[in-house]
Amino acid sequence: MNATARSVRTKANDIADYMRKRGQRARAAARVIACAETGTKNAALFALAEAIVDERDAILEANAQDMREARNNKLDDALVERLELNPKRIAAMADGVRQVASLPDPVGEISNMKMRPSGIQVGQMRVPLGVVGIIYESRPNVTADAAALCLKSGNAAILRGGSEALRANLAIARCLDRALVGAGLPKDAVQILDITDRRAVTEMVAMPEYVDVIIPRGGKGLVSAVSEAARVPVIKHLDGICHVYVEATADLDKAIAVCVNAKTQRYGTCNTMETLLVDAAIAERLLPQLAKTYSEAGVELRGCERTRKLLPDAKAATEEDWRTEYLAPILAVRIVDGIDAAIDHIETYGSHHTDSIVTENFTLARRFLREVDSSSVMVNASTRFADGYEYGLGAEVGISTDKFHARGPVGLEGLTSLKWVVMGDGSVR
Amino acid sequence: MNATARSVRTKANDIADYMRKRGQRARAAARVIACAETGTKNAALFALAEAIVDERDAILEANAQDMREARNNKLDDALVERLELNPKRIAAMADGVRQVASLPDPVGEISNMKMRPSGIQVGQMRVPLGVVGIIYESRPNVTADAAALCLKSGNAAILRGGSEALRANLAIARCLDRALVGAGLPKDAVQILDITDRRAVTEMVAMPEYVDVIIPRGGKGLVSAVSEAARVPVIKHLDGICHVYVEATADLDKAIAVCVNAKTQRYGTCNTMETLLVDAAIAERLLPQLAKTYSEAGVELRGCERTRKLLPDAKAATEEDWRTEYLAPILAVRIVDGIDAAIDHIETYGSHHTDSIVTENFTLARRFLREVDSSSVMVNASTRFADGYEYGLGAEVGISTDKFHARGPVGLEGLTSLKWVVMGDGSVR
Question: Boundaries of each Aldehyde dehydrogenase domain copy (chains A, B) (predicted)?
Fold first, then answer.
């Protein structure tokens, strides 16, 4: 082994040691935070919001340095844009934390305590998962958001933001420390990593003794890399290939409102419609009118053959289009015959994220809700509603496209699970 | 590459192909079974119970051949014992299937439909996980049990039993086919693998496109091997190092009843007490009396130093004893000072399976339930109650020692998750 190889190896060991120590501290803090009273957790959250407001200038200064370095490093504009903080965004960050404080505490809730013939009484108690690892990119507001959600749900957290946002994240970390210590909670309950080496992530996702779940928040590359390396459960968010199916009996006005909103309200979000399915029976009435609105909004249409007979200006859609998450002002359009064909299309090409039917028919609405296997299924509503705030979760720590544990927006409840509680009176089998 | 290597390689490809085809068929059947009506699923289950009774002689004959081969192969006695079927066990198998039929259908239940300020109404629907892979050893009754639970919860299943039970499993498979086809459900909804090559398992746990969750049922070796190779979520059952803590205010009669039952009712089960923690304030009154009963039952005691002052016949417990799942008539005993020391011991040495406190103190009972991070926490009840039947789940497909998704006994509900349901009236953001 030459000197360089040796030094690299030592460094890898150092990182492993460092991460394991972080993990041990998180595990110890998790026991305390899991049993912390609701009032104590809320006090820490309100103190965090206050500290963020107090430290606004320091956070902005740190962010300005991050931005300068990002520009010097020629990071792409979209990333730099996501990085930027301003007084309004900082106020929103503090507001978000206060909102989490005002949510009901999910931890400790006991449900379904039933008497059993044996004499015992059995039910379930909602409890934290333990230690949550969150790996994210750029946006520094995720730091405050994620910390607040983990704290409120009684979990310890290890947060690993992008290296491009390190200074702002560490400024927020100082607010967190102050808030935790002020409320009498262990500082280690939320740890923000100051190590930017990628191997820290590889370590972190492979310590089941210390980390109970990993949530990657970022692009597909990040999510796949984390999932590949993970030795602990991962709450994954992969593609959002969302559909709206306008059924034959749809109300035309509702259909247009939903279709326009689902595509044009924002283009880059995972709950944006990417493919529109139109029932043949309503296509002639709907599509020309809809195409006009899309054209005004600058949305490019890619249609199946039948669509292009009605909309000669639309490009021809290929098989690939049905599988594409554009995240852009492009929409694939397909004419289908009936609900079975629509559901078949969604199950074949969709990503099980969010799908909506527009219909006035009760039975078909019920069928769609039941048969479409997506994390959110909707009737007469825009796919854009698939979001923690809109669902009343307060905030979301991510959106799961998995079927295991939690589906769709993951809020406080998604960061908990249920243990069994048994009460007896000296009961034996 | 020489000829042998080539042939082995071809064989591995064959197995991969074979398993992927099985997976595709399961995925297709999952769509059908997920939406099957409750009455249809129940009809299939009652038909399965009937077929098992009808085919009793054929199943017994297949089992007799399995047993002969197992003995010829010098498999160990415990394994051969678990393999054995008899008319009583077959009747119990059919009864188990009928019990699952009589449980409420968890699928399709909609809960918490709340109105949101935006005008949408949001709630959750319970849905199957999709395709469940179950890998188990010897006991052929698991085949009927697991098939029934997956079917009722709307999941497709791929069952892979031990090669030693192949003939009996295939005889049960024929009953299943008859029942499914008779009810108009796809045969592929429950597939029982007839391939005994271990590589089939390695394939099966690494097909996230076709399998949504893997449940290994068997010894630690099986569970670890499956977890290591898995690329899909695994519902794991690892150690059951269960504790009873007899607190100072405990009622002596209840304490004795619980301690004796938790240890001696059965030795080889995961919910058997392995370590007894006794509060110093009650040790003198409890331990000598308890030791007598244990001694009569043939239970060997291994005590801490303080225990051995009260029970001079007890062996000395080592650090290793606190971490051991004996699955045998051996019990570790430790005297502790107060609930904090008891909880510390449980959190340090326990396996987060099942732990019980015996106490008359309300506040300490509440603390124990809240602070002990185990899948089942109990007050004044024997740890032996930690079981799907006892909890009213009807049957269990396994016991999870994980914190993610499901903890403790996993019944029908553990084989489902919740998707979001949104209803609007042309609602947009």
Answer: 32-297
